[in-house]
Amino acid sequence: MMKKMRTVKVQFTWWWLQVLALQLTLIHAIPPAAPLQCQDGGAGGCTLFNSYGVWNDRRDCRVVNATYPKTEQELVSAVAYANKNKLKVKVVSKFSHTIPKLACPDDGGGKNSMLISTSEYSSGIEIDEAGLAVTVDAGVGLRQLIDAVEAAGLSLAASPYWEGVSVGGLISTGSHGSSWWGRGGAVHDHVTGVSLVVPAKPSEGYAKVVRIGEKDPLFNAARLSLGMLGIISKVTLSLEKGFKRSITFNFSDDSQLEEIFMNHAKENEFGDITWYPSRHTAVYRYDNRVPLESPGDGAFDFLGFQANSILISKSTRATEKSLENSRNAKGKCAMASTFIGVKKLIANGLKNGLIFTGYPVVGRQGKMQSSGSCLYSPSYRIDESCAWDPRIKGLSFYESTAIFPATKFADFIRDVKKLRDLNPDNFCGVDIYNGFLIRFIKASQAYLGQSADSVVVDFNYFRADDPATPRLNQDVWEEVEQMAFGKYGARPHWAKNRDAAFGGVKGKYPNLGKFVEAKRQLDPANLFSSGWSEGMIAGEAAAVAAKGEGCALEGRCVCSEDSHCSPAKGYLCKEGLVYKEARVCRYSSSSSFTFTV
């Protein structure tokens, strides 16, 4: 055992030194693969992948064909073709980061469906400097938009942390940063206009463009629509005069987290908190705007979104798989401690210039709000990539995101601490990634937005290569999920989560009926709906798998009997340790077996 631990420690130390070396050089990576792959120029059908290379159900998303319009009129023609031929249709951009199958039009083999890609509809950016607004084509990438706005001396106040998204995609799924100030941290709450291409009568040419402004009755449905109302062609966003931000990370004890998170959000315009439960550590991000003339030209190049050596990514994955196979929680804790140490040393990717030299880091809003440097690279670089690129067999993980009413979040933290305190080592698996990332979004009038000021919690954790393989401490993460979505009524992020998180979602959105009515008005034939999206809105069986053998192992269901877990491998359906109503797949040490992830 000591020899194994020494080997693990050496691997971690080598990884740490490599990361530090990479910080001192300009790294480029293999650019991500296009999400839409077609055979024989499209004649042989197309397959849609997300950026992780695998959907929740591990089944391919196939369509009969795809089209790549370059103009709004070509978008209209594509929708007209689909409507005339009664094809199910969805939209995909040059990026594909939804974890559920929101972008997949049909799970029936794709014979009656098509995809419309906005990857080539991405050139239009019209900035109204006097009116503090920008109107963009839906396929424009977030970084492209940010750079154009900043070049005009203006700033986009809200955006997600990851910039590998299109403008149409990010407002469709509720993407957000972190803020309770002003219009808030959700990008759709900064939208002032949306143009949709929707089905039309034959006399209207089978498709038409609908322009929707803030006073339009359809506005609160259109600005966060999950792609279910029509194809977004253009988006208008509000802007602000250019500004800078000042960021400091404070690594602290987590003993008062539940008492002070609310004040932290109120006192810091863009503040967030990263909580590492196994290490009893909370990292408070003090993040506020400062005048444009403030000294500093820093940037936030988030460590997790930087180009990684493929060798390091594969080694990290191999190490974690080995620890899973040997049920070595202590080894995972050693990984977590090392990774958190690196993040503290280099400020998690904050840079005063070429490297991090000290707090605070001050820089233009456009350099501080979003990152994703692993996206940009020449194809001839074959030694680095985004760490999760499926082509390199690097990191593979689940991403759960729960959105709580702010008034309930303190009690959730207390319950998680009770579960953590039973055995802190059980939480090391999530701390290997990014712990619990806690962000803040303001109450929204959007029908599918948050009806009250809310706290968003993201946590990532290991996913096995084989769907039939249970995970180390699987029961812990299932209990945390069910605690969030069940006991505290948290809402799932529309573009993240395992399928079981969407159970009962219908009752969590008081304005869902208004959204459905808008959907009937704009898309009466359900051209833009799929079985999965309809089931997700209904919170019923199409979004959550019918229960069967092993369905709980990958969050396709919540177990109610042992067969939903993996009794042959010692995982049985049990009640939660803190939240007794939870039903989780827990390992029984009385069983003797081995398995490979």
Automatic annotation (TrEMBL):
EC number: 1.1.3.8
Signal sequence segment: 1-29
Cofactor(s), by name: FAD
Gene Ontology BP term (one): L-ascorbic acid biosynthetic process
Keyword Flavoprotein attributed: yes
Pfam families xref list: ALO, FAD_binding_4, GULLO2-like_3rd
Reactions catalysed: L-gulono-1,4-lactone + O2 = L-ascorbate + H2O2 + H(+)
A GO cellular-component term linked to this record: membrane
Protein name: L-gulonolactone oxidase
